[in-house]
Specification:
Layout: H1 6-19, H2 21-24, H3 37-45, H4 48-55, H5 58-66, H6 72-79, H7 93-96, H8 101-114, E1 121-124, H9 130-138, E2 143-147, H10 150-162, E3 167-171, E4 188-195, H11 196-208, E5 213-219, H12 234-237, H13 245-250, H14 260-284, H15 304-314, H16 325-347, H17 350-367, E6 370-376, E7 387-393
Parallel strand pairs: 1-2, 1-4, 2-3, 4-5
Antiparallel strand pairs: 5-7, 6-7
Helix pairs in contact: 1-6, 1-17, 4-16, 8-9, 14-15, 14-16
The structure holds S-adenosylmethionine (SAM).
């Protein structure tokens, strides 16, 4: 099946995600056992290594679960995007200096995909303005970059001046300050990896001010937004799906291969937290998972019992004498195995959730009178947040 037009595609995806929500709209930590009877034995048979291998190979993950979840075949089709391939600019050392490997390639691909050489650019939530400088070098006649952090604005402004690029920084909080005057009609609005509400404000402002062209790659859909998802398009407002922050975060859960030691500490942290949860449940007769605040990782070099005393203090819980900490540590390890396997099933749906969120944005822009294209701008290995939305306002006599 070919890629269908956005509103039909949204409708199909929306139904499919609704019908399969029992697999992804779950909080793994809350479950003591695998919550899907038909998957239980298959999941528990997997070794920890097999879980990690499947988790890092999307094709294998889909093949594995499509035997049990027939909807996955259609999900793959609905989640696919064409990749926009442009030619990376050869960059002089003075320009690329200070931008690390994968980030540089990501920026080069983004610049190539956007390929702006004529219009002035508004760079949204610019950081140090690396992207803005590359766009300027690529041929954009002027770049105006907006950024919250004064220090990044100063560094970006200095680099641009030193490199003789026509780029100007504006230090502003886009969630609080009046920034509408930056949305000049003929400027090309560009937002790379602006989180949640930051890119929503960008889109609202662009529409309200009649900006002709925008290109954005959204990320962290939940950040700075209310706990329940606020749909942008009429279609998503009518959806029966109610996405929470937890659901939105699923869209971001690509496996990032952490260095060995970091992964080991993380593993211990999760099983200790679950072990403490088992202890707390028993002492309080509480049936729900209660999170314990994040903490300096040094605590995980100590003993499980020390961690439990610390966690109990955070929860104002007095631990009685004679606790069999070894037993709870073991329960924690077992519960981590359950959690990992539940997460593995949820991960099958992560890209589909992201595509649903992105289509909401596409439909919003279409309804506001834009022609919109959806693609990826780089390989996933450079960044899993590789979706590019490009919108061009239809001319009056369209
Ligand atoms: C993930 S970084 C993206 C930076 C750059 N666009 C890139 O892709 O390399 C997000 C940037 O948004 C900025 N930011 C966060 N909140 C902001 C706000 N309320 N107003 C303006 N900028 C903000 C951050 O300081 C940070 O530099």
């Amino acid at each position: 099946m070919a890629i269908v037009e956005p509103s039909k595609r949204f409708q199909l995806l929306d139904k499919l995600l609704f019908d399969t929500r029992q697999y992804w709209q779950v909080v793994a930590f809350e479950h003591l056992t695998i919550p899907w009877p038909q998957l239980q034995s298959e999941l528990l048979r997997l070794s920890d290594d097999a879980v990690s291998t499947l988790d890092s190979d999307t094709d294998a993950l889909f093949t594995f679960f499509s035997r049990y979840i027939p909807e996955l075949e259609q999900l793959t089709v609905l989640s696919a995007l064409p990749q926009k391939v442009g030619r990376r600019d050869e960059l002089p050392f003075w320009l690329s200096n200070g931008i690390k490997g994968r980030k540089l390639e990501q920026l080069q691909d983004f610049v190539a995909a956007v390929n702006e050489t004529k219009a002035s650019v508004l760079e949204w939530c610019a950081g140090k303005g690396h992207l803005g400088r590359l766009l300027s070098y690529h041929g954009a006649p002027e770049v105006n970059s907006i950024e919250l952090q004064a220090d990044l604005c100063r560094q970006g402004e200095e680099s641009a001046k030193r490199q003789n690029l026509n780029l100007h920084f504006h230090c502003a909080d886009v969630l609080k300050d009046d920034i509408h005057h930056h949305f000049v009609e003929n400027r090309h609005g560009i937002a790379l990896h602006a989180c949640g509400e930051l890119h929503r404000v960008f889109m609202h402002q662009a529409v309200a001010n009649g900006m002709k062209k925008l290109s954005l790659s959204p990320c962290c859909y939940h950040l700075f937004t209310p706990p329940d998802y606020q749909a942008m398009s009429v279609e998503a407002q009518q959806s029966q799906l109610n996405l929470s922050h937890h659901d939105m975060k699923l869209a971001l859960q690509e496996t990032v291969t952490a260095p060995g030691r970091v992964a080991q500490v993380r593993k211990k942290e999760v099983s200790w937290r679950l072990g403490f949860d088992a202890l707390r449940r028993e002492l309080t007769a509480d049936k729900y998972y209660v999170s314990v605040p994040s903490v300096n990782k040094a605590i995980f070099s100590g003993s499980f019992s020390e961690f439990c005393y610390w966690a109990a203090e955070q929860k104002q819980l007095a631990l009685p004498d004679g606790i069999d900490f070894d037993q709870y540590e073991r329960i924690g390890r077992e519960r981590k195995q359950v959690t990992d396997r539940i997460e593995l099933v949820r991960h099958v749906f992560r890209r589909a959730i992201e595509i649903w969120l992105v289509l909401d944005r596409v439909l919003y822009l279409q309804a506001a009178g834009y022609d919109v294209t959806l693609s990826t701008f780089c390989e996933k290995s450079l960044t899993p947040r590789n979706i590019l939305i490009q919108a061009e306002r239809q001319s009056e006599n369209h």
